[in-house]
């Protein structure tokens, strides 16, 4: 079976209450394996079980229980190392007591009564130091407890106060007795420094082991990570191996349980045996009937194919004295049977190519229909886009599709009784009709606009010509002669308006004016206001 790697704990920041609960659980678990020197058999308050109770000097732990069998790995190694440390401490304490006793005997022999007095003072001094240390520890506990009460007063009583934990710790009196008995040796400052040094070494060693374990765990995770993205061949091999293991296990189970199941299988009732036999016979009969029907259908199919492929017989022309009526009857009444192999060859040579040709035509028709549908959709998309962007269709819509002309269109269609049934018009045809109508209407409108402007231009030109004639008449000048002088001989012919003006004037009048004096002051000849030409 494939071993499944446990997923790592998610690195999610925990809340303060969750962190406190985790610390309390870890403290209770660790305290269940340790025996402290400053605890009674029954804890007096609930705060002694908090995680702050582990903030004590290293010599407060006097014993470590034997780790259970389910504890493995780093926890077991830590507890074993702590047991070894406590054993070394006890051995060192015993040696210190022995050396202290030897020194005390030698000092008593030399100094006499002064040595006993100094020993009593030293014991009193050691007890004082121990009491000061305990007092400092209690002050630290009190400070942290007050801070916890100030932050969260409703959850201060959440510390574990189970009574069963008191059976695993030593009493405070035993600590006092042990301290008073072992304190007569070396200097307490040296002992404390040495113990602190050992504690630091143990902490550093544990930290190094923790780092090495973390590194090994990361390497193991790095090795296990590509397993999720393994190759298909590896996955297939793993699945095959798993299947083989399962099959082997099932076979073993069947073999082990086969002896107990053989007896019930042999004692099958006679009714069940008869029923199964009858069902088997019915199935056999059904299979035979189906096969016979299949053979009959195949024969009828071959006969139909042979009759369809049989050529038409034409009777040859013979002498009238021979009697051929019976043969004709036989020939027409009983068709000649053909060989099935010939029928199949005829089918494969003639009918199959025709079927293939029809299939090819059908495929071509479907392909052309698909292409036409695709092109139609493309044309519709283009026409719809152009109709959305065009300014021509909104200006010139098809009148038959306007709401106000619907009744007229319906009336015209109702009158066309001879026309075939109305079908839904094609979308492309509808858009093309709209574009054709709009383009035709736009062309008609443009022609009308051009004709209107040309008419207005002609009227304006005629008015301008008339005004010009009046101006030249006031100036007593000839318009044709003035234009001829400006443009030369060819200018008169090229100027349309001047030629038209000259054509409208009579020749006699032109000759008469040619003899009259020219210029605006020609009228000042003494005949002003007389009216004589």
Radius of gyration: 63 Å
The portion of residues assigned to helices is 55-70%
Strand order of the biggest β-sheet: 1-2
* Beta strand %: under 5%
- Report the average pLDDT across residues: 72
Query: How would you classify the helix and strand content by structural class?
Result: mainly alpha
Shape: flat
Number-wise, the strands total 2
Stretches where pLDDT falls below 50 for ≥5 residues? Answer: 40-47, 154-184, 319-333, 417-421, 506-514
Order of helices and strands: HEEHHHHHHHHHHHHHHH
Largest sheet: 2 strands, antiparallel
How many helical elements?
16
Q: What is the rounded distance between the termini? A: 139 Å
Region (Disordered): 158-189, 505-533
Keywords: Coiled coil
Coiled coil: 196-223
Write up this protein.
- A two-stranded antiparallel sheet has the order 1-2.
- Helix content is 69%, strand content 1%.
- It is mostly helical.
- Residues 158-189, 505-533 are annotated as: Disordered.
- Keywords: Coiled coil.
Any chance you could write out the topology, listing elements then pairs?
Blueprint lengths: L15 H16 L2 E3 L24 E4 L9 H38 L1 H39 L20 H11 L5 H37 L7 H35 L3 H39 L16 H9 L6 H50 L2 H4 L10 H10 L11 H48 L4 H9 L1 H6 L1 H9 L2 H9 L18
Helix pairs in contact: 2-3, 9-12
Keywords: Coiled coil
Offer a quick outline of the entry.
Keywords: Coiled coil. Helices cover 69% and strands 1% of the residues.
Main attributes?
533 residues; mainly alpha; two-stranded antiparallel ribbon; 16 helices; 69% helix; 1% strand; coiled coil
């Amino acid at each position: 079976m494939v071993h499944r790697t446990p997923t790592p704990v998610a690195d999610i920041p925990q809340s303060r209450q969750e962190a406190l609960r985790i610390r309390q659980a870890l403290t209770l678990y660790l305290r269940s394996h340790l025996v402290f020197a400053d605890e009674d058999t029954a804890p007096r308050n609930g705060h002694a079980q908090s995680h702050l109770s582990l903030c004590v000097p290293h010599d407060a732990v006097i014993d470590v229980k034997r780790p259970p069998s389910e504890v493995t790995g780093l926890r077991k190694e830590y507890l074993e190392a702590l047991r070894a440390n406590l054993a070394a401490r006890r051995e060192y304490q015993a040696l210190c007591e022995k050396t202290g006793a030897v020194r005390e005997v030698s000092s008593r022999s030399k100094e006499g009564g002064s040595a006993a007095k100094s020993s009593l003072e030293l014991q009193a001094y050691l007890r004082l130091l121990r009491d000061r240390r305990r007092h400092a520890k209690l002050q630290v506990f009190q400070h942290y407890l007050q801070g916890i009460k100030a932050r969260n007063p409703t959850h201060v009583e959440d510390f574990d106060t189970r009574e069963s934990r008191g059976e695993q710790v030593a009493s405070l009196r035993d600590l006092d007795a042990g301290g008073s008995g072992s304190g007569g040796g070396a200097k307490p400052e040296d002992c404390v420094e040495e113990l602190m040094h050992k504690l630091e070494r143990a902490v550093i060693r544990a930290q190094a082991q923790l780092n090495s374990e973390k590194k090994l765990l990361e390497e193991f995770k790095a090795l296990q990570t590509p397993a999720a993205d393994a190759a298909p061949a590896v996955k297939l091999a793993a699945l095959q191996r798993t299947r083989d293991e399962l099959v082997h296990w099932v076979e073993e189970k069947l073999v082990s349980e086969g002896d107990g199941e053989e007896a019930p299988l042999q004692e099958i009732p006679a009714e069940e045996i008869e029923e199964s036999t009858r069902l088997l016979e019915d199935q056999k009969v059904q299979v035979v009937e189906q096969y016979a029907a299949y053979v009959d259908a195949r024969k009828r199919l071959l006969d139909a194919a042979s009759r369809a492929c049989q050529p038409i017989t034409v009777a040859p022309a013979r002498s009238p004295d021979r009697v051929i009526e019976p043969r004709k009857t036989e020939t027409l009444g009983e068709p000649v049977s053909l060989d099935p192999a010939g029928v199949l060859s005829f089918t494969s040579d003639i009918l199959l190519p025709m079927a293939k040709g029809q299939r090819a035509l059908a495929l071509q028709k479907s392909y052309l229909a698909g292409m036409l549908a695709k092109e139609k959709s493309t044309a519709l998309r283009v026409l719809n886009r152009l109709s959305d962007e065009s300014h021509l269709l909104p200006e010139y819509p098809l009148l038959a599709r306007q709401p106000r002309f619907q009744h007229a269109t319906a009336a015209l269609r109702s009158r066309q009784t001879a026309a075939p049934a109305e079908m839904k018009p094609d979308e492309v045809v509808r858009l093309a009709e709209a574009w054709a109508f709009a383009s035709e209407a736009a062309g008609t409108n443009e022609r009308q606009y051009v004709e209107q402007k040309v008419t207005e231009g002609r009227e304006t030109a005629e008015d301008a010509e008339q005004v010009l004639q009046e101006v030249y008449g006031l100036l007593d000048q000839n318009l044709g002669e003035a234009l001829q002088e400006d443009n030369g001989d060819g200018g008169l012919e090229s100027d349309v308006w001047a030629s038209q003006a000259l054509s409208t004037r009579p020749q006699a009048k032109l000759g008469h004016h040619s003899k009259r004096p020219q210029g605006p002051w020609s009228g000042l000849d003494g005949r002003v206001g007389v009216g004589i030409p």
